[in-house]
Amino acid sequence: MYWKENGEIFTNPDRNLESIDDWPPLPYHLVDIDKCVMVTEFGSRTINYVSSYGCPYRCSFCSEVTVNHRSWVGLSPELVLDDLEKLQNKYQINGVNLYDSLFFVNVKRAKAILMGIIDRGLTLRLGNVDGRAKQLAEADDELWELLRESRTYSILCGAESGDQESLDVIDKDMDVEDNYKFAEKCRKYGIKVIFSTLVGIPILNYTHQELEKKTDGQISSTIKMLDEFLSFDSRNRGQMFIYMPYPGTPLYDTAVKLGFQEPKELEGWAHMKLYDKQTPWVTPEQAQMVSMISSYIFMFLDSDTILWAKERIKNPTKKLFFVWAYKLFAGIARFRWKYKLFGFPLDYQLFLFAKRNNKSI
Asked: FRET label pair with 168: which of 11, 191, 217, 318, CA 20 to 30 Å apart?
């Protein structure tokens, strides 16, 4: 914590993460739950929920390394299950969007939660459960069977890149092959995956022109990897982001040395977005391509999108028009992806216009 007093800046030292089992239960009764629920592919009444904080891994682009110093703490399985049971029985929640930074840090705990969902007869479904490809690829069959039996819908995985050099630079401590093994496991057990990736990674001792070419290579290798993964299951979804320099992270100083112009005032950070070009070695064309692929093409390749998007539109006429427009744009997006045609993005600009005027998508 920082504060300023009489012109002097003061700071308190960081505290270690403490046990959260002794914290009081979340006071759901103090909020209007109906304003917190949303329609997703895994629940018509889905709510966000956090069961743990932190992550012990050292990914050098990630703020977790700086914020929680690679520490992790989680609610006990019993308390998590009590919360889930209350959400289902009292508030008719049928989907839980799990917002943990990494749910599977303690596999024994993860198994206990999944087993508890089965034993208590809970019918709500977990979705977007954050998992690490290498860890889950090497996990035993018991964990995977529990994921299937508990009807866990989807896993969010930081696959990061189809380029091994990039994985090494960001200290991911895994191989590209681990992503393939993990994707195969998810196909075997019928679990949807959201694969998150990033490009435009800063690497020392290269010119901007050389890094621009490396970014092209990162995009190409990641597209190749995701092309195979998305073919495993029509529900699978890709995400692609441009590297964002976060202050305090291991890669931040590298980005600054390579020419990243850091904002000098707090307000400047408020205008920085993942899809925007923030670093000088990423070209505007690359930034537009990444944004189009991730927020437009991947959205329409995911067969689940139409299910939740149309249910968020209450007006019957608007819903009918949306379904018609969706089918049109989905056809164009699938054509672009099949032939890897990402130029002349008129359809993408129309999509952005529609999105600005319809918050459902």
From this structure: 191
Write out the two tokens for 162. Answer: 């189809």
What is the DSSP track for 235-276?
Answer: T-EEEEEE----TTSTTHHHHHHTT----SSHHHHTT--TTS
Tokens 């029509």 found at = 234
DSSP 303: T
Fold of 2-269: pyruvate-formate lyase- activating enzyme (3.80.30)
| pLDDT, position 360 | 58
Task: Say if CB 147 and CB 193 are below 8 A apart.
Answer: no
Coil, helix or strand at residue 89:
helix
pTM here is: 0.93
Is the CB of residue 40 less than 8 Å from the CB of residue 91?
Answer: no
Q: How far apart are CA 78 and CA 90, in angstroms?
A: 18
Q: What whole-number distance in Å separates Cα of residue 149 and Cα of residue 115?
A: 9
Asked if 25 and 58 touch (Cβ cutoff 8 Å), the reply is no
Residue ranges covered by each domain of the chain: 2-269, 282-361
Ordered alpha helix ranges (H), 266-315: 266-269, 284-292, 298-301, 305-311
CB 85 within 8 A of CB 121: no
